[in-house]
DNA sequence: GTGAAAGCGCTAACAG
DNA sequence: CTGTTAGCGCTTTCAC
C-alpha cells in the first residue's frame, strides 16, 4: 500500500534510537533524557509522524472509541430535536477527550446477530452509550459478560444496582409545566398520553406522577387521558402532551377540524419549529448545551482524558444524586 | 483483563489445528478439507467465537469502518431534516455491508490539528464521506496524500476530475417549484436568497439558475432578492426561499408583523413540521428513503460487500450521469 | 491441505 | 536512561 508509510520503527532509525524510546517520548514517560526526547520530537515533527492508534490499541487492549447505539427503526428518535442536541453534546465531550465516536444501530444482520453485539464482543469500542429503550436484560448480560462499560440514556431499572444512567428530572418538569398552566389561569388541566407507554417508559410514568401531585397540591382534580375523546368530554382547558406524538396528534386537522380547538397545548422538550406553529405550544425544556458544557449531562468528567475508559462504569448518577432539575423555560 | 478471552489461537488448540487453518476457514479459503473445516466451525460455534476485526485490520491494513465528517459548528446541518434522512440512509448501507460508521466532526483540538485530519492520517477508517462544505483544497490534499477514498455530499468543483460526489438535481427542483407556483396562479414569483451563499454554494447557484430559466420559459421576469425589502417593493406574490433559513426569516413575526403576509412561500426539502405551520409552505423534496433503499443516493453499490473499500473511489456519479431528478412533491 | 514463522505498528516488562 | 524481547490477534507467504 502506502510504501513510504512512516512508522515508529522508521522514526527510531532516523533518530538513532530504539523504537521503545520513541514510544516513551510519545507517551510522555518521565524516564527520558531531555536530549533524546528533543531529538526524537524533532524527527517526529520533521517527518510529520502520527502514531497509529489502532496498533497502539491492539497492544494496550483499547480502542479509544466510544460507541453510541440507537434504534434505527425508531423514527421518533430521529425526528426528535432533543435527541440531536444530546448527540452533539456527547460528541463534543468525546472529541475533547481525544476519543472517537462510533455510531451503532440496533441493526440485525442476516446471520441473526446484531451489529451492536458484534461491536461489543470484538471490543471495537471502550465503552457504550445506549438509550434506555435499548437497555434490556439481554444487552445487560452481553455488556457485563464482556466487561464493557456503558451508560444508559434515560432512567430504567431492572434490579441491577450497577447500572449507570443519566436523565433529567421528569417529575419536576411536569410540575413546572402544570404550575405554569395554572398561573396562566387554566384549571381543567389534563394530561394526554399513550396507554402502552405508561407501563413501558419510566419517563412517562414520572411525568404523570409530577402532574398528578402538582394538581393535588393545587387542589384540582387530575385527569390522565389516553384518547382525544376523553379530553373532549372533560371540557379540557389545557392539555399536557406527554410526548410530541400526542402533541402532533392534537395539532393535526381532521375531518371535523382541530381535535381541541380551544384548549391550550403543553409539552416537554423544545422543538425550534414550535414558534412557527399555528397553535401556541407551552413547553418545558432543559438547556442541554449549558449542561453539556458542564460535562455533566453525559457523565463524562474531564478527568477521563488519556485514562482508561473503564472509569466510565464508576461515574456516579450525577442527575439523580445532585437532583439537578429541569430549568423550566416556558413560552 | 478478560483472562478467558477467546482468540484464534485458542480455537486452533481446541480444534487441534494451527491458527492459520482457523484463519483459512474464517476467510472461506478454498484449500481446506471439508473435514477440518467442519471441525473448526463446530468449535467456533461451540465457544461462540468472534474474530477480532481490529487485529484482522492491523494485519490486512483495513479498518472496516467508514467515516462521516460533519461540521459541528454548522447548526443548520443539525437542524436539517434532510441531513438526518441522509445519515440514516448512509448508516443502513454501511451496516448492510458489515462496515462500521464513525462520526467525525471538524473539531479542532488544542494542538491545532483536527480530529478529521488525525483519523485520516492514522487510517482509522477505510473511506470518508464529507459534506461539500467541508471539501476544500486542504482536505483534498490531505485525503489524496493518504490515499484515502472519499465521496463528497453535494456537488462542488475544484478542478479535480478525480473527485466523486453525489447530489440531487437542484436545477430541476427549482424548475418544478417555479412551475407549480405558476400553475397555482401566481405570476410575480420571486426568489429569496443569501447574497454570500450565491457564490459560495453551488446548490444555491443551481437553484437560482433553474428558477431563472423557468421564468424565462414562462415569459415572466425573474427576480432574485437578497433582502426582505426588495421582495416587499416588488409586490411579490410568491417567494421561493433558497434555504430554510430564508423561509424561517419570512415566517418570523417582527414588530411590523409578518414580512410578507400575503405572499405564498415555497422552498426546497421537506420538514415534517411544515404541516403544523401557521403559513402554508410549498416545497419540492426528494424521496430520500426510496433512493436510499435503491442504494444509489449514497453511491454504495451492494457489491462492495467484503471487498476493499477502495472501490468507493471508483464509483460513478450516479446522480449526474443518470440524471435522476427530484421527484417534485408539492403541498 | 496444513503447519511454521514472520509481520502489521505499537507497548511493556526486563535487563543492563 | 535506553535497548532487547516478547507479545496484542490476526493474516500470509513459504515449505512440506
Summarize the structure.
Chain A is an alpha/beta fold. Chain A is 40% helix and 13% strand. Chain A has helices spanning 8-15, 19-26, 34-46, 53-60, 75-78, 81-96, 115-121, 137-145, 170-183, 195-200, 202-217, 228-233, 244-251, 288-293, 318-321; strands at 65-70, 100-105, 127-131, 150-153, 164-166, 189-192, 224-225, 238-241, 264-268, 281-284.
Describe the 3D structure.
Two copies of one chain form a homodimer. By secondary structure, chain A is of the alpha/beta class. Helices cover 40% and strands 13% of the residues of chain A. The first copy, chain A, contains 15 helices and ten strands. In chain A, the strands form two sheets. Chain A has a five-stranded parallel beta sheet with strand order 2-1-3-4-5, with helices on both faces. In chain A, helix 13 links the parallel strand 8 and strand 9. In chain A, helix 9 packs parallel to helix 11. The first copy, chain A, starts with 7 loop residues before the first helix and ends in a 10-residue tail after the last helix. Chains A and B meet through helix 4, helix 6, strand 2 and helix 7 of A and helix 4, helix 6, strand 2 and helix 7 of B. Strand 2 of chain A pairs antiparallel with strand 2 of chain B. The structure holds a DNA duplex (16 and 16 nucleotides).
